[in-house]
Design a protein that fits this description.
heterodimer, A: 247 residues, mainly alpha, globular, B: mainly alpha, two-stranded antiparallel ribbon, 2% strand
């Protein structure tokens, strides 16, 4: 029988990574420097790789024979389990780096904890991802420092970006389904370590910790912003236009 | 028809002209030593004495090559968000990333000739330096990603493999690595088209349409016929160019026709047939009129490609300024602490 809570948990991790990779892909050819085109492509590729292994595992847990592509391309937005943080547009470099700092710091702590899971597949995926995400955190940290402590203009833009992302941080720490407590990492236990890391970077970047109320969550239950539907329409349209085709 | 205005539009090839006055102003150098290096097929290295015209010609060719890699990110980047499977998405992201890497590599090679990457990029933005015209064609369907890999990268490799033996060391060495990756890209493109041409009716039609649209522009990537290629002789004498435009074009046609048969796709040229006497495929006359229009700026995507590139550069200005300011601050702090 399908372990629905574990499937949803795995889909949550997978969809976070997939949707984030989709947003990151936009930057390739649009970054402020050529080196950054390369770096953001790298990060997007890491996230996409995580999404693929996690979706494949979700397909196995589901036991309905669905592949990574079936799950990525043939689910509607109400079936996606990602947090809202990663799905909103990301066309400002300050926003991209603020979000990457928040998301990758969360992912780093989550994957570290998950690498000790008794679920061998998830622990293996997590152990590999820790190495990748460590670099993402490092990359985002350096940019938040440069932009926060760069020019007066960049400082102001970085603060605006951080403030705009902040309402969506709270959802990262959505409590775990109680049936999974002994099996996987509990996001609600990560609030302190994640925020401690972020606070350190924000302070060093001469920025202020945002004082804004959290946005309503719901991503893990498939309640998303309006943006996800557009993102999926673009991502899925070709695949869906040729039902049953092999690519 | 005069091709003298046919200035630098290809990548891995060079048909441009340098202003003759610059040659006249070149500083004195040891012509005999340079000629001896070339005669021995030795590599010219950055520290070596070289004619000013050789240096300028190389800068232009390498810069155009770099710019082509960078602008070439756009037509394929156009399909990253819509790639029809996650595996294809990953391959495409990695490919476009490779192109950025090639650009970096080539700008670095150009910098060994005493120019600055930022200046070269400014010249691209202002239109004083060009990029390959092939990237002014749109990628209308997913199959275009395959056609670019198979045909455009295939043509680029044909141009670039001889450059691995070019007389200028840093360019030759850059080409060795670039060619390895391009060859991988070419096979990926072939594989995309192979999958499509063996797929559904709709997929096969998509593949054929892409090949129909990209075939002639790919042949034009080799530049004008040899009779009308003003700089080729000089580039050959300098050991930059090893084969003529028409020789390379023929090599590409001979390589590609059997591959098209393996794909089960046709090439849109009724005159294409094997010539036993020549030991090569004959092909129809190339109508360069369209290419000249594209070079003049009237191609389907010239304005979009430049607007995208300039737009990204301008949107990133605040980021680069911040990075500079941050570096300055920290350098001062480090000095203050010392």
């Amino acid at each position: 029988m399908t372990d629905r809570p574990l499937l949803d948990y795995t889909l949550g991790l997978a969809d976070d990574a997939l949707v984030s990779a989709q947003r990151m892909g936009w930057w390739i050819s649009r970054a402020p420097e050529l080196e950054e085109d390369v770096a953001l492509a790298n990060i997007g590729l890491d996230q996409l790789g995580q999404a693929r292994t996690l979706l494949t595992y979700a397909g196995e847990l589901e036991q309905e024979g669905r592949t990574e592509d079936d799950l990525a391309y043939l689910r509607d937005d109400r079936e996606f389990r990602n947090v809202k943080l990663v799905e909103r547009p990301m066309t400002d470099f300050g926003v991209a780096m603020a979000r990457l700092l928040l998301f990758s710091t969360y992912q780093l702590h989550l994957y570290r904890a998950l690498s000790a899971s008794s679920d061998a597949t998830l622990s293996g995926i997590a152990a590999k991802a820790v190495k990748e995400v460590t670099y993402h955190v490092d990359h985002a940290t350096h940019w938040v420092l440069r932009l926060g402590d760069g020019t007066a203009g960049s400082h102001a833009r970085m603060q605006v970006a951080l403030d705009a992302e902040w309402p969506y941080v709270d959802e990262l720490f959505t409590p775990l389904d109680p049936t999974l407590t002994r099996l996987v990492a509990d996001p609600s236990a990560l609030r302190d370590p994640v925020l401690t890391d972020v606070r350190r970077v924000v302070a060093e970047a001469t920025l202020a910790m945002p004082e804004v109320a959290p946005a309503l969550g719901g991503g893990r239950q498939g309640l998303h912003t309006e943006h996800l539907g557009h993102l999926l329409a673009e991502m899925q349209h070709l695949h869906r236009s040729h039902p049953g085709a092999t690519w | 028809m005069s091709y003298h205005w046919y200035r630098g539009h290809v990548y891995g090839n060079d048909f441009g002209t340098d202003a003759p006055a610059q040659d006249g102003q070149a500083p004195a150098h040891d012509e005999q030593a340079f000629a001896a290096l070339l005669a021995d097929e030795d590599r010219i290295e950055p520290r070596d004495d070289m004619p000013e015209a050789y240096r300028k010609s190389l800068i232009r060719q390498i810069a155009q090559h770099a710019h082509s890699e960078i602008i070439g990110m756009q037509p394929e980047g156009n399909w990253i968000s819509r790639a029809p499977s996650l595996r294809r998405k990953a391959i495409l992201m990695a490919k476009v990333q490779d192109e950025a890497g090639h650009g970096l590599y080539l700008y670095a090679a150009a910098e060994t000739l005493g120019v600055d990457r930022a200046d070269l990029v400014d010249q691209l933005h202002s239109g004083r330096q060009k990029y390959s015209s092939i990237f002014n064609y749109p990628t209308l369907t997913w199959a275009d990603v395959g056609a670019i890999g198979w045909l455009v990268d295939g043509a680029a490799i044909t141009n670039q493999v001889p450059l691995c033996r070019c007389s200028y060391g840093p360019y030759a060495r850059a080409m060795v690595r670039v060619c390895k990756e391009e060859s991988f890209h070419q096979r990926q493109g072939f594989e995309i088209l192979h999958t499509l041409s063996h797929g559904t009716t709709g997929q096969k039609a998509m593949a054929q349409d892409a090949v129909n649209r990209y075939w002639w522009p790919s042949l034009m990537m080799f530049g004008p016929p040899d009779d009308d290629s003003p700089n080729s002789a000089r580039s050959m004498a300098w050991g930059i160019k090893r084969f003529s435009n028409d020789e390379l074009r023929q090599r590409f046609v001979d390589m590609t026709v059997p591959q098209s048969e393996a794909l089960g796709l046709t090439l849109p040229d009724p005159d294409l047939r094997w010539n036993d006497e020549r030991g090569h495929y004959d092909y129809g006359d190339i109508d360069f009129t369209e290419l000249f229009e594209v070079i003049k700026g009237n191609g389907p995507c010239n304005a979009e490609r430049m607007a995208h590139k300039r737009g990204a550069h301008e949107a990133g200005a605040w980021v680069r300024e911040a990075a500079d300011a941050y570096a300055d601050k920290h350098a001062r702090r480090t000095e203050g602490a010392a």
